[in-house]
């Protein structure tokens, strides 16, 4: 059983959706990607951390939208002509959640063979290392493979939300 | 058909029946001889026994059989329902409930715990006592009957000592989840099947055979002391579609003659079967041949339970053919009763069991429909086409109606929940040695099923509290000029788009001074804080107020009241308490009717739209332009109205418009204003849950989608009011010179 899954891991290259954010290229497994939509009307939600931009109406469902750069502790993502929202299905601890992320531009869907994936560096990255699943090499360039379940972890965001809420309470 | 789902139905029905039995038992305390109630109890036990037998739950069958026998004697007037028997029967119900739960948890009846077995045995011993008592009364009619029997022997009565059963199962028997062999198994619990003859004539050729259809019939010789009703009852579930003939021992020959006539299509083979069963002897057969008897056969007294359905696979006697002869009177009475039951059954058959998940799906779809409808209406208005507009209006009115009726599907009456407390009150009052009755009103008030399911625990707590700490001992009551019997009341009614449930008692009431003293001691209030009685009473809902040692020296209640409050708050409800010292206490629970769709009032601040539940909106006014910059309350026709600036609260840095508006909201007695930019009017709001990400935001209760497709936020008014008043207190503004403001704030705490 374990043998079989190992050969599967080595033999089949997983597909990744790459997108750019700031100066960098990131990638998420296409298994998490539900769809890509154009950047549209967003309703901000008060008393939330800045990384939660708000919510959108996705065919009758309400989906929260996250700014990854602010989640990484960097500046706001600039919204431009090529900006998109990538809708992701994130499941963590058996809780399924649909969350959207804002990206500056969607690049491509690529196969990255396992031998081209290096483990996450223990230092030298400006992003929390537990957010990184690995570093992929594509044509001599490095893309950051995100552990999207970790990045969009509900517990983390809830914590952020409650601190944001109490902070605004204090200031009010 | 899936066996699991049938068992599920069996479990659900058994629970319902046990509940009916309990209700009837509790009612019978008041009117011990009401035949309707006695029958209801008997029917419940009987049906449980019958259906358990079908599933082969022999332990339940054996146990229920004893209980049923006792009930049968009650029905026959040989035993009377006294309080002791009622208590015993209630225990029987509980025990059966326990067994059903055990099955529901997926266990095997063979593995029940030692205690359960002990209860089983103990209850059976108690029940058997009722069966042994007063044997004289029972034997008398039997003797009379045997006399009668002897008298009949002369007039062509058969010699066989056993019942003869002629069964032709309907084609759909297997499809409806019944197995012919299960009847044999069940019958073996109260008699011996002496001989079985299979009837295979109706089996078609292989190429025409439908593997799901039942073609088999059985001829049975059955030795049993059971009465006809018991044997009839065995086939209760297949009677409609099958042809079931039951011939008692020593029946007249004519009974067999008409049976043979009925099974004419089977010809000689049927006769051979009767002979092989020993139900008919050769001599009797020859006697039958004489035309006189055959002619008589049309007016036989054989009991027929065949189907009236002409399309049935098996020919049956027309209903009119069964004319009363020898056993006439009792059978007639039975038939009349059966008719009555059928009528009652007819009422039940108007109900359909529906999976709750399907209802949820429907309500979700209706929600989508409302959003789509709102969009159409908006586009129609924009188009400026008059006809289009009218059509859209009609559409949205219809959608509104669909919404309302979809929501009522989930609504159930609270009466059933209330009635459960009859038992609680009865048991607890015995336990406490107090004479307490429960008065129930407003049981027809409807609310959402999910809410009903969750309200049971808090209500139990409140009722127990009222009985334990509210109602004084009888002597004290008499000394205070009250009747010795205490009263606990449960009441429900609709108010302002919600439901109010009241639990009240006519007991000693609460002493505000004592509660205040306790609250100060616990650090929940400060000495000399000017609080009204009502505010003081509501302190007992504070966590940390109550501990067990207080019951005595407080002579009040409070144990676990914070838990009650937490449960109610989780249902988006509130709870408050009212009490008059010496006269009683009333706890009032307010709950929303449903959790899915509300009528909302749409407002906007800057770019964002918000929805306030319409039933909380009292009025809208324009914010007076001057002199309010640093103030947090305004003068509303002489009353002080505190207000919240939403722009400020939500840190919206857009510039406010020249004119701002105030929406006056009221919730649970607190009134406050919300300062907003624009009033956009009424809006049907489909509540989309906040989801995990936003669960922590205190001022929001959900999202909704506007006709334009944009998302709006639903404000959580109770949460908002509580949060803002809280902030004010923290900021040290609590000591406002305006008493009323202070009042409002502390109320919200």
UniProtKB/TrEMBL annotation, chain A:
SUPFAM superfamilies: CheW-like. InterPro entries: CheW, CheW-like_dom_sf, CheW-lke_dom. Gene3D superfamilies: CheA-289, Domain 4 (2.40.50.180), SH3 Domains (2.30.30.40). This is Chemotaxis protein CheW. Residues 13-157 form the CheW-like domain.
TrEMBL record, chain B:
Residues 597-726 form the CheW-like domain. Its EC number is 2.7.13.3. Signal peptide: none annotated. It is an enzyme of class 2 (transferase). CDD domains: CheA_reg (cd00731), HATPase_CheA-like (cd16916), HPT (cd00088). The modification Phosphohistidine is found at residue 46. Residues 1-103 form the HPt domain. The keyword Nucleotide-binding applies. Residues 319-332 have a biased composition (Polar residues). Residues 137-159, 315-347 are annotated as: Disordered. Keywords: ATP-binding, Chemotaxis, Kinase, Nucleotide-binding, Phosphoprotein, Transferase, Two-component regulatory system. Involved in the transmission of sensory signals from the chemoreceptors to the flagellar motors. CheA is autophosphorylated; it can transfer its phosphate group to either CheB or CheY. This is Chemotaxis protein CheA.
